[in-house]
Amino acid sequence: MTGPRVFRFLNEKGSLDAHGWDNPAKAKLWRYNQHYFDDLNAEGADSRGAWHQALITDWIAANPPGQGSGWEPYPTSLRIVNWIKWALAGNTLNEAAQHSLAVQTRWLMRRLEWHLLGNHLFSNAKALIFAGFYFDGPEAANWRKQAMAILFRELPEQILPDGGHFELSPMYHALAVEDLADIVNLMTAYGSRLSAAEQALARGCAARLPGMLRWLNIMSHPDGKISFFNDAAFGVAPENDCLHAYAARLGISVAPLAPGLTYLVDSGFARMARGSIVVLCDVGRIGPDYLPGHAHADTLSFELSLGTERVIVNSGTSEYGTSAERLRQRGTSAHSTVQVGNEDSSEVWSGFRVAQRARVYAVEANETREALILAARHDGYTRLPRGPHHSRSWQLTDTTLRVVDRLEPAAKGVARYYLPNGVIAEATSSDAGTLRLASGRVLRWYAAGATANVEDSTWHPRFGLSLPSQCLSLAFTGDLTFDLTFDPDFA
């Protein structure tokens, strides 16, 4: 909130006076954010207590039960949790708000999102368990019982053995870390009321958090922020340092990452770290077969940092919905990987749908004294006439990242390397050039077997944000070797 009745969501301003609570002139996700009530627990919320009291009163009056976007199960779930967190932090929910909170929970109880599953159903269960502890009586006990049944079922499904969230989005993974930490925190606060089953759930959530925090570290850049694989953007989930601090207050911590090659077998990602160079690679499936809504066609894409400067990225996520721009951002051409015939490696369509999916195989991960080596193949283009398999390998030494692409049988492809805002590419010939970083460092690149072009593009590190950037585009047939060299003294 930027004023008593003024908001800024997804980098877009709005107000209750101008837009009300459910104005279709605003995108669905913007309206959802109105109904989340995240600001009740945001930084500096204590100074906005009077705004929040008035906002809750206004919401109750303007949103009769069951009417409008705010009563859909997902925003209802987040709002229930936020109101209860706010109350448990020492604020007062008056009688009308207490009554509304109970009505919202009853409404949610009858509309759990079994048809969507994933993070939606988990959020439903989290809301039920928060309300189940906040209120007393047999109805509240039933909410807790339903929440327990969902969480016991979903925890082993949604949290993979390597610690990753199964939708394979670093952003949604960070949200899942917060969810589990919240549940541990809540159950610690209500420890004297826990049943044996609830105690077991609290232990199970706490036991998973170290692995989840480690996964978050692996899939983040040295700047301390998440990478952009599948739906991911800054400013939605809590920052990494906030999540680690929260976990530490609960007595949970993880050791710093070691350099070298780390392959997350269950998630299908890998991290190559040598000196100050970090390369993050996607060598896995796009997500759960039954839940690809947050998937992008980004198979075998990668991101690279030199120290705290991002050098190569995927182009990010700035919007949801069913627009042409949403579809473009999900497509292969918006990622640092290879595209064949203007097709996507996985057939993304609509806002949250995927038809045929690329399958990754032949993953190899090796570490020697001289280099870190990762290789994989996928079959996403074999649905095309004479469609090729795409294989890619990464080799990282102290001075060079070498990326080798092969299309078999030989076919025309385009390898794209997206650069964040502030990194400037120059082609000094048809197959060589430089990358100039914001710090002034200059990296040299050479593309054997390709014709290179530097194209104007956009980078989307936050929802509602499109920054001018560049893309290095390499057209090739059959085989391509790309070398990026850097100063070994810096590395």
TrEMBL record:
> What are the UniProt keywords, alphabetically?
Lyase, Periplasm, Signal
Which Pfam families does its entry note? Hepar_II_III_C, Hepar_II_III_N
User: What region holds the Heparin-sulfate lyase N-terminal domain?
Assistant: 102-233
Task: Give the subcellular location.
Answer: Periplasm
Q: Which residues form the Heparinase II/III-like C-terminal domain?
A: 261-469
Extract the InterPro entries matched here.
Chondroitin_lyas, Hepar_II_III_C, Hepar_II_III_N
Q: What's the name of the protein?
A: Heparinase II/III family protein
Source organism: Kordiimonas lipolytica
